[in-house]
Amino acid sequence: MFTALDDTRPGDPQNALYLAQACSLAYDDEDKAVLNFRDQLGLKARLISVDNTQVYLAENDKALVVAFRGSQAPTTLDGLKDWLLTNANNYLILPEGRIGTDFAAAGVGARFHRGFMEALHVIWEPMFAGVTKALESSERPLWVTGHSLGGALALLAAWRLHRNFVSVHEIVTFGGPMVGNEAAARAFEQEFAGRIFRYVNLEDPVPLLPSVSLVANTYAHCRSEVSMSAIQAIASALDVLKQSAGSAMEQMLEATQIEHLWKVVQGRISAHFIDHYQERVKEKCGSKPSSPTAPETAVATQEIAGPETLSAEANEAHQSSS
């Protein structure tokens, strides 16, 4: 049994460890997951599944957890290439209809990833109904979490819940991709100040995506990263992508470059697995077991360094390999 959620300790890695387990269980079939939510986390859970979007609503008398599943399997990124690389630029939109009204509150310039918005849209009605019913029966802190694609949906769902007068206590994501542009990211930061915790394994390439360029990417993250350093002798995902891009770094990614970068992403897929994140969070719990972990303000956009710096590093990498 994991340590119960403690709503008095914002950013506590013990809370993150609990929610990472919820994300792991979200990949299981419903019968197995329901039993494990009960036995391991002390939560009564049920699955809501519409098309290819799945979320578990799990609760006890002290907490309500909304845990989004990532891709269909925890060890693959199948089906996400177009969303994360090929059509990333074309996917950045202002949604329309009711969901557009909710997200228009992020500001005039805010834009969001169409694929993630559509995935949230298909499951919104039953999920929202389930959350509101649970909170009407008993007011409790609401935690929203997800791994990979589920992390993107968790962030977007939290925004829409908030706009519909549902208070979100904390948003904790693991290896989540970016969901919108910089204006959208800044709106999330302002609305959920001190309540977003993005756990990022620096070896994992997925949090660097979607991407249209490795220098001037239109997408951006909230500045709420809890980074987990790559172990010695393993290059960070950013370093690997920069080296792979070579002289193409300063340009919009083209078809052949996208294919190559996608192979690099797939080659480091193990760093994206939820069990890898769980191990890293356990290390954080072991290093500071008695004090909350404040989010480390790290890289919130892809503008990591100027083009000159990146080009020099790429050239050095090319020369060393030739």
Task: Give the SSE layout.
Layout lengths: L12 H13 L4 H12 L2 E7 L2 E7 L4 E5 L12 H6 L5 E2 L3 H8 L7 E2 H24 L4 E6 L1 H15 L6 E5 L5 E2 H10 L4 E6 L17 E2 L4 E4 L8 H9 L9 H13 L6 H14 L19 H15 L1
Parallel strand pairs: 3-6, 6-7, 7-9, 9-11
Antiparallel strand pairs: 1-2, 2-3, 4-5, 8-10
List its traits:
322 residues, alpha/beta, Rossmann fold, seven-stranded mixed sheet, 11 helices, 11 strands
Proportion of residues in helical segments: 40-55%
What would you call the shape? globular
* Mean pLDDT across all amino acids: 81
Q: Give the SSE string.
A: HHEEEHEHEHEHEEHEEEHHHH
Would you tell me which CATH topology applies?
A: Rossmann fold
The number of E-state strands comes to 11
Level-1 CATH class name: Alpha Beta
Low-confidence stretches: 247-251, 288-322
Gyration radius, rounded = 19 Å
Q: DSSP strand (E) fraction? A: 5-15%
Explain what the structure shows:
The chain is an alpha/beta fold and 322 residues long. The chain has a single domain, classed as Rossmann fold, CATH 3.40.50. The chain is 43% helix and 15% strand. The protein has eleven helices and eleven strands. The strands form three sheets. The protein has a seven-stranded mixed sheet with strand order 1-2-3-6-7-9-11, sandwiched between helices. It has a two-stranded antiparallel ribbon with strand order 4-5. Helix 1 (13-25) runs antiparallel to helix 2 and helix 8 packs across helix 11. The protein is globular and about 50 Å long. The chain starts with 12 loop residues before the first helix and ends with a helix.
